[in-house]
Specification:
Length: 283
């Protein structure tokens, strides 16, 4: 797992502007071993002016920010941009309700069929979008994330979504299918976690900086935090060495496969493709 000390080379402060969630924000800061700082945001600031105030509290290019919208990674340099895990954003709602349901490539890639909803380990959870989509299609999904900061963003995203779900039974059912586990998936593949899994889903970070323009902005910003997943080939090999019968790798459409092993078949979309490795002898 990424050491907290490595993470702290990128982030050295968690700033809270939301009095109501001060205790929670402090607990996140403590768990991540980053200093906590509270600022009064009662005055109206432009986002530029606010970024300047935040910049004065850190020597790094980003901070963790707990505001009324929850926990964010606030990038301050080279551009001002925030990312967070938001399972109930309008974008997620649109993808869930109008994104094509079981006809989406991701559904076909993991093997969803009428009344067949495989149990999935999403070994590269990131901002949880793919995991949430699979859960909304009916799969039970264990999200594994090794970056402590991303894992905390996921934890906070689940907390906020669960609040919304108190008044939304459909969302509640979806969230009940999602579980978050912290750690390096390569190590967790050797644990009990793997016992009930039918699919391992991998979406390692896009490797080539020169192709970053092809990736959505939030993924570019996430890359700022987690870097490149240089051990992606190793992760795939570990996944293939488990008894799980189906391993799915999401890749940019035109990119090479992450390992020399030949995929059993490939599903290709406009931007992405899914390399599917089947191990019938193991399933
Ligand atoms: C491209 S992002 C995944 C995006 C995700 N599919 C989504 O829909 O938001 C890759 C994430 O996988 C995590 N990751 C990469 N290798 C991992 C491993 N071996 N174990 C756990 N997490 C890993 C990275 O820290 C990063 O957050």
């Amino acid at each position: 797992m990424l050491e907290l000390s490595n993470m702290n080379e990128l982030i050295d402060t968690l700033i809270c502007t939301d009095k109501a969630n001060k205790v929670l924000a402090e607990s996140y800061a403590k768990a991540l071993s980053v200093p906590f700082c509270e600022i009064d945001s009662s005055s109206e600031f432009s986002s530029k002016a606010f970024a300047k105030i935040l910049s004065e509290k850190t020597s790094k290019d980003c901070v963790l920010l707990m505001d009324e919208g929850g926990l964010h990674l606030q990038i301050l340099h080279p551009s001002v941009f925030k990312i967070q895990v938001n399972f109930v954003s309008s974008q997620m709602e649109y993808r869930r309700t109008k994104g094509g349901g079981r006809n989406q490539l991701i559904a076909k890639a993991v093997g969803i069929k009428p009344n067949v909803f495989p149990v999935v380990i999403d070994a590269t959870a990131g901002l949880g979008k793919d995991a949430f989509m699979l859960a909304s299609l009916g799969c039970h999904v264990t999200m594994v994330e090794r970056n402590p900061c991303v894992r905390t963003l996921l934890e906070d995203g689940l907390r906020r979504a669960n609040k919304v779900a108190e008044k939304n039974s459909e969302l509640k059912i979806i969230l009940e299918r999602l579980k978050l586990v912290s750690g390096d998936a390569k190590e967790l593949f050797e644990s009990q976690l793997i016992e009930s899994a039918e699919v391992i889903y991998l979406d390692p970070m896009f490797p080539h900086p020169e192709k970053r323009a092809l990736v959505k902005k939030d993924m570019q910003m996430l890359q700022f935090l987690v870097g490149e997943d240089e051990d992606a080939e190793c992760l795939l090999e570990s996944a293939l060495s488990t008894k799980v019968g189906r391993v799915v790798v999401k890749r940019p459409r035109t990119d090479e496969a992450i390992a020399p092993e030949q995929a059993s078949y490939v599903l290709e979309g406009k931007r992405n493709r899914y390399d599917i490795y089947l191990h019938s002898s193991k399933s």
